[in-house]
Amino acid sequence: MTTTARFRKTNFITAYVLAVLILFFGRQLALHMLSPASDPVENALIFISDTDSIDAGRQSNSVYRIGVDGSGMKRLVGSIPHGDGYLRVTDIDCHATSQSLVIASHRHDLNGFHHALLDGSGLHLDKPAAGDLLSATRQIALAPDGMGILVSRQDLAFAEPRFSLVAGDLASREYRSIKLPTANRSYLSPDWSPDGREIVYIIEELSDNARLSGGSVSTRPYALVIAASDGSDEQVIFETTLALTDVAWSPTGEWLAVVVDRQVYRFHRYGGELIKLTNHLGGATSPRFSLDGAQISYVTPSTFPGQNQLFVMNADGSGKRRVANIRGDVVNGCWV
Questions:
Q1: What pLDDT, on a 0 to 100 scale, did the predictor assign at position 42?
Q2: What pLDDT shows up at residue 20?
Q3: Residues 157-174, mean pLDDT to the nearest whole number
Q4: CA–CA separation, 36 vs 143, rounded Å?
Q5: Exposed, middle or buried, 133 (CB in 10 Å: 0-12/13-18/19+)?
Q6: d(CA 326, CA 62)
Q7: What was the pLDDT predicted at 7?
Q8: pLDDT over 50 at 127, yes or no
Q9: In angstroms, rounded to a whole number, what is the distance separating the alpha carbons of residues 140 and 113?
Q10: Tens of pLDDT along 88-98?
Q11: Predicted local distance difference test score (pLDDT) of residue 188
Q12: pLDDT digits (tens, 9 = 90+) for 49-84
């Protein structure tokens, strides 16, 4: 064999080995990116807070995990850089099976939401395939299949903040408006039914005759609504002049946890009487059902200034216990 032939054979073998190595490691990397976290997160609460002094200084906040027994608090996703500053996270949701976490941030120029695994790895920005339907996202909800996305987003066509509902999915990154706001109406706090066929949300309506001289507001009618997942067949199941600010659907499909005038109530999916679950002096916010529907977590202000408490109670309101006392703002996110 000539020297030239040996050289060509050596080059061919080297190229073949490199190709095999590239394919192998590329496949491993892809599997790591698509698979659940290697250290599954279980029996914990995921929440947002600016408890870290770094976050407070940056006017931002982070995503944290804490055991339901109050142990092992861990910062999962720190301050998220954006432009020449950092994002203020407004809402989060998670999917226990896929260990997926979605993060909403209310910035008009973001046009998307962040997506990561529940161990904080793989953080990236998900943007629509086209258009700007996700700009200024306020609230976000993951469907039971871990792929569908529902957001309440600010519609920039109005002088005052008005919010629409936008639906889509993680695979196609295609989104569509399913509920459009008006000058007097916003759609807030969307959540999915356990089978993914229906959604629940809050309508906040401000009519022209509710305005007093000087532009102040005398009343804000609210409605609790259930509709098909595409926004059709809308049914109002509860109306009130008291503020409705948050709603969550139980995994059993039977109950809703709703915040009425800063206290948590339980309400049957088909209507009926409100059942009051909390009576905290400072109010209670962001109720979230456990995966089996037996418990509800929520946030209430601490007696110490500038601090908030994560609480857990049974779904009937009994057995209240404090999980943690946390310095700074707190928004409850989800159970895993």
A1: 75
A2: 39
A3: 94
A4: 17
A5: buried
A6: 13
A7: 46
A8: yes
A9: 9
A10: 999 999 999 99
A11: 97
A12: 999 989 989 999 999 999 999 999 999 999 999 999
Dist CA 316 CA 277 (whole Å): 7
Sign of CA dihedral 275, 194, 205, 127: positive
Q: What is the DSSP string of 157-203?
A: TSSS--EEEEEEETTT--EEEEE--BTTEEEEEEEE-TTSSEEEEEE
> How far is the C-alpha of 313 from the C-alpha of 302, rounded, in Å?
17
CB-based contact 287:332 (threshold 8 Å): yes
Q: Which amino acid is at 321?
A: R
Distance CA 246, CA 243 (A): 9
Judged by average pLDDT, the poorest of 19-28, 170-179, 183-192, 310-319 is 19-28
Instruction: Fill in the amino acid letter for 55.
Output: D
Q: How far, in whole angstroms, is CA 40 from its chain's centroid?
A: 19
Cα–Cα distance measured from residue 238 to residue 248, given in angstroms and rounded to the nearest whole number = 14
Distance (Å, whole) CA 39 – CA 274:
40
Q: What sign results for the dihedral spanned by CA atoms 170, 171, 175, 176?
A: negative
Secondary structure (DSSP) of 115-143: EEETTS-S-EEE--SSSSTTTTEEEEEE-
Residue 95 phi/psi, 5° resolution? -130, 110
pTM for the complete prediction?
0.84
Comparing C-alpha atoms, which of 137, 129, 74, 130 is closest to residue 105? 137
CB-based contact 46:101 (threshold 8 Å):
yes
Phi, psi at 175, each rounded to 5°:
-130, 150
